[in-house]
Amino acid sequence: MAALAQEAPGIAAALLAGLLAGLAAVLLTGRLRAVTEQPSGLYRHHVHVPLAALLGAGAGVLAPSWLLVLPAVVLAVACALLVVVDLAEHRLPNRLLALAYPSLLISLLPAALLGPDWALLGRALLAGMVVMVVYLVLALISPAGLGMGDVKFSGLLGLALGWAGWQSVILGVLAAFVLNAVIALLVMVVRRDRRGEVPFGPAMVAGTALALAVT
């Protein structure tokens, strides 16, 4: 068991996580179709599959031990499905979030029980709640900027960031807002439309990935 807690080889973990995430995304295609409300080329071309594989490979590289490869896969698949729906329909379905939360928590249990410090799970749970409260307050202050789907999604990402540490939590949250502002500005310039809406989910995922990569 101790070997599982050792540092995971980057390339091997990336290949395994990418493969598993891509396969899981294929298997969850039916679940994705069940929650969609509008037609989109993103669904038609199964963009969630390569996106899940890409996110899974990236998360696998960042996983500090083999025990965290499975949580990396779960998080990657959840993010891929949610981002695709957010890009296509500007919403984050409750049914996908309801599946993602217990899946990520269950996948973290082996790492908590067999890893060096089981208290990491407690910190992750606390961070998830703190981040969700922050997003909820911001959504109540500016409902046009954040939706309840973003609030619910933030808890999931906060859970992952919290496992890595409070520095990751702070950076991940701040990075999401900065990246979203940059994306919104670029969209305004390209479309020349100041009223164009930009889904926040992709920036949240990008901010989380950035924070996990540098902390």
From TrEMBL:
One of its GO terms (molecular function) is aspartic-type endopeptidase activity. Gene3D superfamilies: 1.20.120.1220. Keywords: Membrane, Transmembrane, Transmembrane helix. It holds the Pfam family Peptidase_A24. One of its GO terms (biological process) is signal peptide processing. The chain crosses the membrane at residues 12-30, 51-84, 96-114, 126-146, 166-190. The keyword Membrane applies. Residues 74-185 form the Prepilin type IV endopeptidase peptidase domain. InterPro entries: Prepilin_IV_endopep_pep (IPR000045), Prepilin_peptidase/N-MTase (IPR050882). One of its GO terms (cellular component) is plasma membrane. Belongs to the peptidase A24 family. This is Prepilin peptidase. It comes from Brachybacterium vulturis.
